[in-house]
From TrEMBL:
Taxonomic lineage: Bacteria, Pseudomonadati, Bacteroidota, Cytophagia, Cytophagales
Organism annotation: Ohtaekwangia kribbensis
PANTHER family linked to this entry: ABC-TYPE MACROLIDE FAMILY EXPORT SYSTEM PERMEASE COMPONENT 2, MEMBRANE COMPONENT OF TRANSPORTER-RELATED
Keywords per UniProt: Cell membrane, Membrane, Transmembrane, Transmembrane helix
Protein name as annotated: ABC transporter permease
InterPro entries according to UniProt: ABC3_permease_C, MacB_PCD, Macrolide_Exporter_MacB, Permease_put_prefix
Length: 876
């Protein structure tokens, strides 16, 4: 072989003598590889000259490195984190970002969209971390919670039977204060003809000693000492009394008079107790004595809460053991109900474990965990987008990186440069994401919970969290390109073609695009499926009429007087009475006593009059409706088809005349059998159910209307209402609207999935846009040559687009079965009667995703295909 076709001997010897380390030997091998590569493209002399130039550069780099190591006392001036160096990194980053404005905007917007939901999470967590921290005794307040077993399941309850409080007072000395709370205080409050809805608790005088709710007017020691005494918050007092002094005034609520004895300062929103009024617990005890209904039952924890203030030195296990020891003999007498009790610290309530009958807004760990997972699911693709586009763009900066490496640039310096660039981008994105956060925060809160119980207004601490979050995201987004370019050797950086291994491999970019569009398609399918489920639910055949039926709340008025007055109105075709609203879950459960059955059985009941079945057009299979004889009706029940299984009957007629005995000993005779209908929500299957007759339980009047002007008819009804109901507000709603409201959670799910889907598809399209722009720029010479050779614009568009279209189709193949299985096997099974996922749902979702992807691709490929090839080739 000609000597010119070999690397120079002298230089090789010199290189081996000076650079004897194993790392330099590897570089020497790379240099030889570059030399033989150059021989294919240029003359031998020029290849040998380029070889010597590379060797000299590497030797210079090696010498500088050795000199730095020797002059250690000057090392601080070369560190990556010296202020002067950081300033230099910042200047380089801003210049580079300003030079490539389009990619800067794409990266910043993609990160801003992803970070916006992160800001929502941070603001929410910052709010929840401050829950109940305003109480002076917050570290010593505990709540007694129950774990009940009613033969069906074991469930944790935030409620506790009221007798637990008295048991602790009587027999345990290690508790400073025991306070009972009952959450049944709710309804219209009337004062001088003004009706205001109020909500609150019955509680004891020591409530204000345990909890820190400052009192503005009144004596803290006596405001709740007497029966029928009440205190209210400043906001409630202003709504009810205006500028009048509320102390000493009397209001009517729940059929009782209450004297206002004090005014509380409005409680913070970050309180797990949300109330407007507090009434004396003695009032509830008096009502119990007068009505005969007990609230001090070990077997009824409904609406009852027990809180404890413990001394600084307390023994929680001893308290729990005492309560369970006292209650054990009582529950041993029952086959159907058992309970165990434990103490829950105040700071563990919100956020805390999921419990039934929470006294305030529910912030359970599971829901927050899902939210955090969704934030990560949206944010990570945005970070990967940045990494992918940054690496692709930075490949054009290989000469800069190689030169810096040759001149002695350290790995830490290269790493710091790329991380700083990412942080500059995320700071720009933070401003944009804060605007998105500010716009959507109120609507987002309304999706989760009542906005009156949450405040996402950021304070200084939250803003600091936002900045820290942006720095963290910048580090996460920049670490991938930073690590990749920091580990390159000078020879690798000086190569004209980048290495094909590591994070820049084409497979990584493909996986990223596929995963992003799979996620986007999943959210789009979620919106389409849930919307279809919501629509199908509202159109479901409930087994009774809903149209043109107006449900009016009786609010304690006499049902017969109501019927007599409203029957005079021409719009009222027929009027019936009921204790609840069918199809919305407004029924109650009751247990049938053992008799002809193997064990006690749970059934459901509702109280109606003799007009109800006809009014809602329910179908009688056998027997008769209730008669006009009220006394006889009280001993009769009308059952549904499902109840026949309970009676061990196969024929509806065979059930007539059979006797059903409740656990309380009451006996009822079956006089009719109805075709099955959905008395409760569609989330539950149809179970054994019966109608009973008891006018004292009627809470609603059901008016079947016949009118062409509903507004005028309702105005007439309101005028008629005032003639016998006084100042009570006329409260009415159409039956079909109440059915819609019962399934409003679907609409909330649609909004949440829609919001997340919008974020995901935006990030995906921005990432795709960046990759398409980069691909078009890299292939601009190829496009020009193809155009010169006669290629049409359409063929060029297909050439540039087909690979991206394949990736979107792969994303669809992945996302469709996963989303389908999730909804079919998990989410939709939460509702017993649900619509199946159809081909149309999947087709619509796929069309939306492909349309957005195709528009993104064509926005760049069409322009490139139509460009003048002369301009492209001249540019090259």
């Amino acid at each position: 072989m000609n000597r010119l076709n070999k690397p120079p001997k002298l230089t090789e010897k010199f290189f081996s003598w000076y650079c004897h380390s194993s790392a330099m030997e590897d570089l020497h091998g790379d240099l030889e590889e570059l030399f033989y590569s150059d021989l294919e493209n240029m003359s031998a002399r020029r290849a040998r000259w380029r070889y010597r130039q590379r060797v000299v550069s590497l030797l210079f780099s090696y010498a500088v490195k050795k000199r730095r190591q020797k002059a250690s006392y000057h090392h601080y001036s070369f560190t990556s984190y010296h202020p002067a160096m950081l300033k230099n990194y910042f200047l380089i980053a801003t210049r580079n970002l300003a030079k490539h404005k389009l990619f800067t905007i794409i990266n910043a917007l993609g990160l801003a969209v992803g970070m916006s939901i992160g800001l929502l999470l941070i603001a929410l967590l910052a709010f929840l971390w401050r829950y109940d921290t305003f109480h002076v005794n917050k570290d010593r307040i505990y709540r007694v919670i129950s774990h009940t077993n009613d033969k069906r399941s074991t469930r944790p309850f935030a409620t506790t039977p009221a007798p637990v409080a008295q048991a602790l007072r009587d027999g345990f000395t290690g508790v400073e204060e025991v306070v009972r709370i009952n959450s049944s205080l709710e309804g219209e409050a009337n004062y001088k003809g003004k009706d205001i809805p109020l909500q609150g608790y019955y509680t004891e005088p020591n409530f204000l000693r345990v909890f820190t709710f400052p009192i503005v007017k009144g004596n803290i020691a006596s405001v709740l000492a007497k029966p029928n005494s009440m205190i209210m918050t400043e906001t409630a007092a202003a709504k009810m009394f205006g500028d009048e002094d509320p102390v000493g005034k009397v209001i009517e609520m729940q059929g009782h008079d209450f004297e206002i004895t004090g005014v509380l300062k409005d409680h913070p929103k970050n309180s797990h107790m949300q109330f407007e009024v507090l009434a004396s617990y003695q009032t509830l005890l008096q009502q119990e004595s007068a009505s005969g209904k007990t609230i001090n039952s070990w077997f009824d924890p409904t609406d009852s809460y027990v809180y404890l203030l413990l001394p600084p030195q307390h023994d929680i296990p001893a308290i729990e053991n005492y309560i369970n020891k006292v209650s054990a003999p009582i529950y041993a007498q029952s086959k159907d109900f058992k309970a165990q009790f434990e103490l829950q610290a105040l700071h563990d309530i919100a956020p805390g474990p999921d419990m039934r009958y929470s006294i305030g807004p529910e912030w359970d760990y599971a829901s927050l965990g899902v939210f955090i997972f969704l934030v990560i699911l949206i944010l990570l693709p945005a970070c990967f987008n940045y990494a992918n586009i940054s690496i692709s763009r930075a490949l054009r900066r290989m000469k800069e990186i190689g030169l810096r490496k040759t001149m002695g640039g350290q790995r830490s310096q290269i790493f710091a440069q790329f991380v700083v660039e990412a942080m500059v981008i995320t700071m720009i994105a933070l401003v944009m994401s804060y605007y998105i956060f500010y716009v959507v925060r109120f609507e987002f809160v309304n999706m989760l919970v009542d906005s009156s119980a949450v405040d996402l207004t950021p304070d200084l601490t939250t803003v600091i969290y936002f900045v820290g979050f942006a720095i963290f995201v910048g580090f996460i987004a920049g670490i991938v390109p930073a690590i990749y370019f920091a580990k390159l050797t000078p020879v690798q950086a000086l190569k004209t073609q980048p290495v094909s291994k590591g994070f820049t491999a084409i497979n990584f970019r493909k996986v990223l695009i596929v995963s992003q569009f799979a996620l986007s398609l999943g959210f789009i399918m979620s919106v389409v499926i849930v919307f279809n489920q919501y629509r199908q639910t509202l159109n479901h055949n409930f087994g009774f009429d809903q149209e043109n039926i107006l449900d009016v709340e009786l609010q304690g008025t006499d049902p017969q007087i109501f019927r007599n007055e409203f029957a005079k109105l021409p719009a009222a075709q027929s009027i019936s009475m009921s204790s609840g609203i069918m199809g919305t879950g407004g029924v109650e459960s009751i247990w049938i006593k053992e008799k002809n059955f193997i064990d006690t059985l749970e059934v459901y009941q509702m109280f109606v009059d003799e007009k109800y079945i006809t009014n809602l057009n329910l179908t009688l299979l056998a027997g008769n409706n209730f008669s006009d004889d009220a006394a006889r009706n009280k001993k009769h029940i009308i059952i549904n088809e499902e109840f026949l299984k309970t009676l061990k009957s196969t024929n509806a007629a065979d059930a007539l005349g059979q006797v059903v005995v409740l656990t309380g000993g009451e006996e009822f005779t079956v006089v009719g059998v109805l075709k099955n209908f959905h008395y409760t929500s569609l989330r539950d299957p149809i179970r054994s159910f019966f109608f009973r007759y008891d006018p004292s339980r009627f809470a609603y009047a059901n008016i079947k209307m016949i009118t062409t002007d509903a507004f005028s008819s309702i105005s007439e009804m309101e005028a008629s209402w005032k003639t016998f109901a006084g100042e009570k507000k006329f409260m009415a709603k159409f039956f079909d609207d109440e059915i819609s409201d019962a399934y409003s959670s679907y609409f909330g799910m649609i909004k949440i999935c829609g919001f997340l889907g919008l974020l995901a598809i935006t990030i995906s399209c921005l990432g795709l846009l960046g990759m398409v722009v980069f691909t078009v720029e890299n292939r601009i010479k190829e496009i020009g040559v193809r155009k010169v050779m006669g290629a049409s614009a359409s063929s060029v568009i297909v050439l540039l687009s087909k690979d991206f279209m394949k990736l979107m189709l792969i994303a669809a193949i992945i996302a469709i079965p996963i989303t389908y299985l999730f909804f079919e096997k998990v989410y939709l099974n939460l509702q017993y009667y649900h619509a199946d996922i159809g081909v149309l749902d999947i087709a619509v979702s796929l069309f939306i995703m492909l349309s957005l992807g195709v528009v993104t691709i064509l926005s760049q490929t069409v322009r490139a295909a139509k460009a003048n090839p002369v301009d492209s080739l001249r540019h090259e």
